[in-house]
Amino acid sequence: MPALYAALALICLLGASVPAAAEPIYQYRDAKGAIHLSNRKLDENFQPFDYMRLPAGTDQAKIVPFIRYYCRRHGVDPGLVRAMVEVESGFAVRAVSPKGASGLMQIMPGTGRDLGLADAFDGANNLEAGIRYMRALLDAYGDVRLALAAYNAGPGRVKKGGSVPDIPETRAYVDKVLARSGVR
């Protein structure tokens, strides 16, 4: 249990010390329409963003490159995060759950504050915070099923070395995300 508390403290520190928009991001759309993102201007084709906002109604094809970028940055499987976004919000940037979770990755307000997320409806920032949070949960639990359960039900309901809590919504969430992601 001390390791879990240490990991949760790290999550809070990360949110407080790392502004989501600290590094510039550059985008380039190639001739085939693929979007390439980088934290460096690799050549003259890459243009800087005024920290990008993914507006309401943004289609999935525009969101997936951001998922790949932040997953690469934080070492999380992009297939897993894509499935999480699909299940959490259906790729709706302005989604709000009945419990108050907001944005693409359906981040609760308290968790968002801990992660330094100023605007849950800023799609890029929401993705970055949610992926950073998922990385911390994967590190804390060492198991993708438990990390997903903690993401959905809250870390307090998932004990390290334990199992997915007996909450029907959480069990269904874990199963849906894993089925769509291909991650085991």
Globally, the shape reads globular
Query: What is the spatial order of strands in the main beta sheet?
Result: 2-1-3
- Please give the CATH class: Mainly Alpha
H-E string: HEEEHHHHHH
The helix count comes to 7
Helix proportion:
40-55%
- What structural class should be given to the helix and strand makeup? mainly alpha
- What is the CATH third-level topology name? Lysozyme
What is the CATH architecture term? Orthogonal Bundle
Average pLDDT score: 83
Q: How many discrete structural domains?
A: 1
Could you tell me the strand content as a percent range?
5-15%
Ends: how far apart? 24 Å
Using only C-alpha atoms, the radius of gyration works out to: 16 Å
Low-confidence parts: 3-22
* Major sheet characteristics: 3 strands, antiparallel
Number of strands: 3
At a glance:
Residues 3-22 have low confidence and may be disordered. It contains 7 helices and 3 strands; from the N terminus they run H-E-E-E-H-H-H-H-H-H. It has a 3-stranded antiparallel β-sheet.
Describe the model:
The chain has 184 residues and is mainly α. It has a single domain, classed as Lysozyme. It contains 7 helices and 3 strands. Strands 2-1-3 form a 3-stranded antiparallel beta sheet. Helix 1 (2-17) packs antiparallel against helix 5 (123-141) and helix 3 crosses helix 7. It is globular and about 55 Å long.
List keywords for this structure.
disordered N terminus, Lysozyme, globular, 3-stranded antiparallel beta sheet, mainly alpha, 184 residues
